[in-house]
Amino acid sequence: MNSMKPGIDQLKISRSLSIIENDTDSARKIIGGLPARDYCVIGVTGSPGAGKSSLTDRLACISAEEKTTAVVAIDPSSPFTGGAFLGDRIRMRRATEDPRVFVRSMASRGNVGGLSPSIYNSVEFLGRIGYDRIYVETVGAGQSETDIVNLADIVLLVMAPGLGDDVQTMKAGIMEIGDIFVINKSDLPGADQLASRTRAILELSGKKFPVMMTDSIKGSGVEELQEEIEEILLSYFSSGRLASKRAKRNLYNNLNSAYQIIKEHYAENDKLEELIRYLLENIGR
């Protein structure tokens, strides 16, 4: 695969990402040597079986028509190697075969939020080397998919009929994380009812987020969803909300890096307590 962006060597990117995923110290050096630039992160989360991968697949290809686009698919970890199973990448045939889209599978490594700890550095790296739109698809662990809010500029909460999503959203409060609510597999029975219930729940909670219907297999509704994503990103930029989200992302990334330093260098060291006390005393100064 070759990126549409001149000067981006995808083999080199893959090698750099492998280092970033496995070595926090090297990650900081690599990213620190790159100029900062604007880019947008689109999170795609929701229940297993909702069709997140096929939806992300189509969205990325549409996005690549106008923007440099990358996809980071978070796969479950192998219990033996800690590596990704690559299931999402197999389901993203359009994007993996599209020379304009860079696709990377990363292992969740058991992280409860569905995002591996190195994902923040990986996304920052992709943004700095020239990708304008970075889609991050989470593992799909339902109620635990909350870390994506701290990473993404905009979050798509993907649901599908027959998965009990209406009950889960009310129980878990997962509606708090979505900017756009997507009823995928709109050709299945119960899709209209799920959309209506979702709108009703949003209305009762005083939220005015869009509820959109898609069929990611046939492609219906996906272009309209992509247009809505860009419109919301523009409105967030104009209102200052995008800047607020990015400040939060930077803070979370810094905290995550601090955690990795502790984990890698002090986990079995008697200086751990001293280091934690120092960090707590100096956060916010």
UniProtKB/TrEMBL annotation:
Keyword vocabulary terms for this entry: Chaperone, GTP-binding, Hydrolase, Nucleotide-binding
Family annotation (InterPro entries): GTPase/Isobutyryl-CoA_mutase, GTPase_ArgK, P-loop_NTPase
GO molecular function: GTP binding; GTPase activity
Domain of life of the organism encoding this protein: Bacteria
SUPFAM superfamilies: P-loop containing nucleoside triphosphate hydrolases
Listed Gene3D superfamilies: P-loop containing nucleotide triphosphate hydrolases
PANTHER family membership: LAO_AO TRANSPORT SYSTEM ATPASE, LYSINE/ARGININE/ORNITHINE TRANSPORT SYSTEM KINASE
UniProt record similarity statement: Belongs to the SIMIBI class G3E GTPase family. ArgK/MeaB subfamily.
Protein's name according to its UniProt entry: LAO/AO transport system ATPase
